């Protein structure tokens, strides 16, 4: 599958363009001041968590060409690691997030080892095994959930330097800050030497070996960094959005959601993760409102979810056929068209 890769010059021009600075200013200042609580809780918090998961998976799959179906497993590891670090060690929030990311990176390294010999469909199956194994372990061993009878636990309160972060606005600003910093870090990585090696492996692994690219090291680094980022996304999903932690919240459907995000948004472009996450989060809400308006709420939630899946599947097929580079490519074409217009 082809992908749109931002060149350093294009990305620098995009980052230096004033609309992005204005967007960040609105996100950090305007949204907390004027957005209703519903918008923060139901749209922006899940959007930020899923967008970060998309950034992590896009690093591995879009830039590295390593297919993974275990994103939700690494989200679960990050969430449960953060919970146990706070519960059992009482670590401050920055240390909790950092160690949870490192633990998830270590798990990602373990499940990334098959990538040294497997590719494509076979690698996807091995990462699918990670999804089932992690969910089984979290369900089987009650220690991870502090022996909760139902396996569902409430996320501990968030605080930083003695200040509570449990309000909706504080949780939004925490999520936005983490997503912004990590996305900038991923941009720097993809436009550095290791990022170039990763793209070379994706394009032609044999040629990459011939020119001296350390293929094994680069693949494992990609799995570790991707898993760490997705682990932080799992922390945001559980601690800032759902406010509960349970293995069922990180099932295979969640892995497919993250995969759909990068397919619809666009592989090998950071913008794609945000565009795809926006569609995945907003579309069910729009469909629910449309159903309530047009049919008076007579369609039950199960049927509505089935319709949502059918439409999303149709959209994915349409993108794969008509525009395999996703929404990011469409946005790029629109920008060029407007730039040429008088």
What's the assembly state of these chains?
Answer: single chain
Beta percentage is under 5%
> Spatial order of the strands in the main sheet?
1-4
Helix/strand order? HHHHHHEEEHHHHEHHHH
The helix/strand class is mainly alpha
Measured distance between first and last alpha carbons:
35 Å
- Given as residue ranges, the uncertain stretches (5+ residues, pLDDT < 50) are none
Number of helices: 14
What is the radius of gyration computed over CA atoms, rounded to a whole number of angstroms?
Answer: 20 Å
Q: Which percent range fits the helix content?
A: over 70%
Number of beta-strand segments: 4
Biggest sheet architecture:
2 strands, antiparallel
Question: Shape, please?
Answer: globular
Mean pLDDT: 87
InterPro entries: ABC_transp_permease, LivM-like
Transmembrane segments: 20-37, 43-60, 67-85, 91-113, 120-138, 172-190, 220-239, 259-286, 306-331
Organism: Cypionkella sinensis
Keywords: Cell membrane, Membrane, Transmembrane, Transmembrane helix
Give keywords:
342 residues; mainly alpha; two-stranded antiparallel ribbon; LivM-like; ABC_transp_permease; Branched-chain amino acid ABC transporter permease
Can you walk me through this structure?
- It is found in: Cell membrane.
- With 342 residues, the chain is an all-alpha fold.
- The chain has helices at residues 8-16, 18-34, 37-63, 71-89, 93-112, 120-140, 168-190, 193-203, 205-210, 215-242, 252-265, 270-295, 301-322, 326-340, and strands at residues 153-154, 159-160, 163-164, 244-245.
- A two-stranded antiparallel sheet has the order 1-4.
- The two termini are 35 Å apart.
């Amino acid at each position: 599958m082809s992908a749109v890769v931002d060149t350093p010059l294009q990305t620098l021009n995009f980052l230096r363009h004033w609309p992005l600075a204005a967007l960040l200013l609105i996100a950090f200042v305007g949204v907390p001041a004027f957005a209703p609580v519903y918008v923060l809780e139901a749209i922006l918090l899940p959007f930020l968590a899923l967008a970060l998961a998309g950034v992590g998976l896009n690093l591995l799959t879009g830039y590295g060409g390593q297919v993974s179906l275990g994103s939700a497993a690494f989200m679960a590891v990050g969430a449960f690691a953060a919970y146990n670090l706070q519960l059992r060690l009482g670590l401050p929030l920055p240390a909790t997030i950092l160690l949870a990311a490192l633990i998830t990176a270590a798990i990602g390294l373990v499940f990334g080892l098959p990538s040294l010999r497997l590719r494509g469909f076979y690698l996807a199956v091995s990462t699918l095994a990670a999804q089932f194994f992690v969910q089984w372990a979290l369900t089987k061993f009650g220690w991870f959930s502090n022996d909760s009878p139902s396996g569902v636990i409430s996320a501990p309160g968030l605080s930083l330097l003695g200040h509570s972060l449990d309000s909706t606005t504080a949780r939004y600003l925490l999520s936005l800050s983490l997503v912004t910093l990590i996305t900038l870090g991923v941009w720097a990585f993809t436009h550095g030497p290791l990022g170039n090696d990763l793209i070379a492996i994706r394009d032609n692994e044999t040629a990459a070996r011939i020119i001296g690219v350390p293929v094994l090291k680069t693949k494992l680094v990609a799995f570790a960094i991707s898993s760490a980022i997705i682990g932080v996304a799992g922390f945001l999903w559980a601690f800032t959005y759902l406010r509960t932690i349970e293995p069922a919240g990180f099932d295979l459907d969640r892995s497919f959601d993250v995969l759909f995000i990068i397919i619809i948004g666009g592989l090998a472009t950071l913008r794609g993760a945000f565009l795809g996450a926006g569609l995945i989060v907003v579309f069910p809400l729009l469909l629910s409102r449309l159903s309530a308006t047009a049919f008076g709420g007579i369609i039950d939630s199960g049927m509505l979810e089935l319709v949502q899946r059918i439409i999303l599947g149709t959209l994915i097929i349409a993108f794969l056929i008509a525009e395999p580079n996703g929404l990011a490519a469409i946005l790029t074409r629109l920008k060029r068209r407007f730039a040429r217009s008088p």
